[in-house]
Amino acid sequence: MAIKCVICAENHDSRTCPQKNLETPVKKCANCGGPHNASNRRCPKFPKIKSNEVKKGYSYAAAAKTTTTQSNPQPTTQHTTPTYSAQNSAPPSITQLKDDFSDVFRLLNHLKTITQPIPNISFYTRILCKRT
């Protein structure tokens, strides 16, 4: 992928852009070609952040799931046990599962060290839980 300047849309890094230090730089969007920087939030091609409201009794997975309509829905088959064939991926190995759990525990320990210096964190957590 080629480098595009966010200031003038030319093929160079924005840190070395000749327009950067000018009093009135000529701006050109690398996304839509408009007269603004590519990082401008008003650009029609700028990615929009979706905000999902927190609802009590509504899971994160259901809130994050995007609803798409299918013109020809595929028939679903239910399996009581997972099936593995030569075409499908093999079940995760014990070593992989151990590594995954190790990563989770490492993350939890890291979060613990981050939150330990915060005084009364359990009090504030309870207040936040009551508000949702």
Automatic annotation (TrEMBL):
Q: Where is the composition biased (Low complexity)?
A: 65-83
Record region (Disordered) = 65-91
Name of protein: Pre-C2HC domain-containing protein
- Where is the organism placed in the taxonomic lineage, from the top? Eukaryota, Metazoa, Ecdysozoa, Arthropoda, Chelicerata
